[in-house]
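Message: A physicist's question: would you kindly supply an amino acid chain plus fold tokens?
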Amino acid sequence: MQSVAEYLKKKEKYFMAQARHQLYKEPLIVEKGYMEYLYDIEGKEYLDCFSGIMVTNCGHCNPEINKKAKEQLDKLQHTSTFFLTRPLLDLSEKLAEITPFGLERSFFVNSGSEAVDSAILLARKYTGNELVIPVKLGYHGRTLLVSSCTTSSTYNGLDPAIDELDILFGYNGYCYRCHFGLEYPDCNLRCVQALEEAIEKMNSKIAAILVEPIQGVGGVIVHPPGYLEALQAIAHKYGGLLIIDEVQSGFGRTGAMFATSEGKVSPDILCMGKGIANGLPMGAYIATDKVGEAIDWPTFSTFGGNPLCSAVALATIDYIVEHQLPARAKKSEALFKQGLTEIAKESRLVGEIRGKGLFLAMELVRDQESKEPATEETLELLNECKINGLVVGKSGPFSNVVRVGPPLTISEEQIATALEILEKSLKAVEKRSASKHLA
């Protein structure tokens, strides 16, 4: 076997610049995974609290799911979508059963990016309008259209295209850093009011408002109560649809099958990806009957809904239901938040703990009053956790939000281990940070 250094030379030589970015100062080369753990090429074990960015909800190489994958792989792995397969037909029925509020017509693609991109096309066709309204700090993928639906400079190098694509940005519900310096609930959802005022000024009908229930890349931002319902009312008032992007929040991650399952909001189109097939590349979007019938010309996705991914998606959903993973995520949320709160009490760097289910975060700041982002310290914390055998992620507009999103199968003992490593790592970072400032 080649050394780590030799493998990293391949990255530098053969990867494009945009693909050379890594989470750590010393990149982690993963060799294998099993349920809640990852192992590098030197055999070191890591407790994974990032799940491949909210993908392996049922754990890495889950034996029950992999058994179904192997059975399907030996039977039929691909055929054009011009033909039907039993896994594809069964999956379309299953999604209509588990998604909220009368969504029943699906289209299958390869990723969340494609799902959102295609959902926008469907909304424009159904409404006859062009204007799409994503909200600030949203992230919806990397196609030309959806990457232009983010205000994050890290993921949007396409600013000149925005005007041509008829995009207007609304305000997200980032209460910790309110755009208007107000506090919920006294703000009366000023962020939503400002969006409606902007639409009024344009004197335009809209195709859709696009929003994540929890903004993952934006910093695990949980919008305040009533926010999504207010967006839906505005979307319908101005001739548009509400597109909910549950690519990261779906399939049990937030303590319900979908984040919108327990609320009062009724998406017209719901987008899925990531956790849908527990790591196999797949995405889908599902719409109400009338909306789903809006595009009637023939179209297809070469790999979308292929029999292998469809069979694995069915196995994933069955596993989530049989093992009650949404309920487990809700129970684990309480344990994690209790532990994170205790860590925060002893830390000068933790500004806020937030999230839902096993979609959690700590926002790190250098000063808790000014909320100056602790960007450098966040990167140091991730590296320190890696050294200590824990994988967590980061996000947010200042890259100062630590993301915690383990497989939903994580045990109480593993949660205790994760919290212990986080606390130990944070103390080490704080000690070094204090030394720098004294120097």
